[in-house]
Amino acid sequence: MAKSTPRPRPAYRCSECGWETAKWVGRCGECQAWGSVAETAAPKSRVEAGPVTRAAVPIGQVPVEESAARDSGVAELDRVLGGGLVPGAAILLAGEPGVGKSTLLLEVASQTARTRQRTLYITGEESAAQVRLRADRTGGVHEELYLAAETDLGAVLGHIEEVRPTLLVIDSVQTISAADVEGVPGGVSQVKEVAAALIRTAKLRNITAVLVGHVTKDGSIAGPRVLEHLVDVVLHFEGERNSRLRLVRAVKNRYGPVDEVGCFDLSSDGIVAIADPTGLFLDSHHGTIPGTCVSVAMEGRRPMLAEVQALVAETGAERPRRTTSGVDGSRVAMILAVLQQHAGIRLTSHDVFVSTVGGARLVGSASDTAVALSIASATAQRALGQQTVAIGELGLSGELRRVPDLTQRVAEAARLGFRLAVVPAERPESNGRSRIVEGMRVVEVGHLRDALRLVGLSGRASEVA
Questions:
Q1: Which single residue of 78, 173, 368, 397 could bond 211 by disulfide (Cβ 3.0 to 4.6 Å)?
Q2: Which Gene3D superfamilies does the protein's record reference (predicted)?
């Protein structure tokens, strides 16, 4: 007796995130959304071989001249992209609402148009008149910059066919929908189809396509994860609402490094690239004050100086406050424990506040020494005495540990005129060794006690114990 062909088992998919399961559930196991899991259509039969678009050739015969990167007109963006805009590349730019994504891409589009390269800007969130008003304010009006307000994928492809641009900007991919695909705009099926069609068109016509993407409340890119796999470059546009500084980070880049950061200044007049953003994170006071110390953070491959401020105040509360801004609160708690155990600085009856200047965010352990010195300075109510920069990770036994890119960090501090740098000792026998780097004295120390003694805080900071 012949065996019957087994019927395909039904599959269920979440309309919010694309998670799939073999049986129906009321709540998505990935995004935890209720009522979003529905049965999908049965898979079709296997696809047979068909005609090819272009014959395969040896890799050495593939021309590369057409894919050479060209300047976007925005130097900081070119820095992150690894040289500029690559023809045929698909770039996804994601960021929180109001961070300035549309302003940045309008600036890129206008700069590209000024080089006599035709640019098409498709907006699905605003009207054409609204974009024109912003272009008038930022000086982005040019005859080679074409603008259209569309939300239908077919209409967008029609504009591309008619204008034949060099650069295509879609603001945003979640607002475009395909008429023959089920689901609401921004849903999993719609985003996948729209993105695939735009990327396919960009590859065939050698157009650089920049897609704006929304983010969820936890900061991840909204829509299916496959969207990040389809594009060639994924950029994150970041910035605090109370600060004008904006950062562009490359999360994925097939044409360049992923450890570069671009800095921009966002104002009512538009967005401007910042080649040297260090001054934004340093206080402009004349002379040193107690409770301040400067550290050097690495944003990608770029060293940036940031000032750490600390305030220590006596309190009668049973549980003293530990408040931080711009630094990791758990690391500050660890540093306070090390100061108490190995430097005799007991702050169990004091409130401690630690913050950075200018909205800088110090991630990692390279600023541990600067935080410890600023707390000790605030406790003793004595300034460090000279322009001092401290770099190094602080261990639980009080030792200073070396951090990556120490030479670059020291060179940046010397370039900006600092006179003393406290850095970890490379070897135990090099503890206390001093050298001069571009007019700045660099002293290697092996322990936190040595660092406090070097800046004149070893005897005074422990008087509050």
A1: 173
A2: 3.30.230.10, P-loop containing nucleotide triphosphate hydrolases (3.40.50.300)
